[in-house]
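WARN no homologs supplied; continuing
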Amino acid sequence: MKPADLDDQLGALLDNREHQFDPARLLKLGHPALERLLDCIEGKATLRTAGQTETQWRDSGDWRTNGVAAFARDDPDSVLRAMKARRWSDLQIARSGIASVPDPRVLPYLLSLIASEEPLDRSFAVNCLSLHRDPLAIDTLIAALKDRSSGVRSAAVSALGEVGDPRALQPLRLFAERCAKQPRSAWLACSAQEEIRKIRSKARARAP
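OK structure emitted
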């Protein structure tokens, strides 16, 4: 397939407001489509549909990372090989969309991302860690309760509630107690108490 034809097909496939495209159709375009998405992430190419300016298409949604995630859910090893062939750093890989795939092979990249200096990176990593039930992921989320960013701490509270592991109960109780003593953090104490209730409810539902 000619590059121009591939771009046209990708543009048509990804052209909807919510970008809830059919992954099966994207996967049928094969590895060249993945490489083209990676080109776009690197800034080497721009995809847009007829009638859209480059700025409108660039700002219209996270279509690049959604597309990469679709390929990664189907074959994580192939996607990782393609990224490493481009000599991407662990942070670049984690930011590419693969982080939203609940696969053990993705976990090391999330751990790299949570070490970032950027609070948005750390919040994103925490949110993605909620997809994992690995003990290391849970330990990392518990550690994030002490992050210097309130946004990251809030994300960690929600993620621990989503995971539902009883090991998070005591850390969340202690976190809630600390936050309750600080007027500006009282809302985090309420959030922690809510997630504690959620974890207990899940534990009761699992009990025989």
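DSSP finds 13 helices and no strands in the chain.
OK
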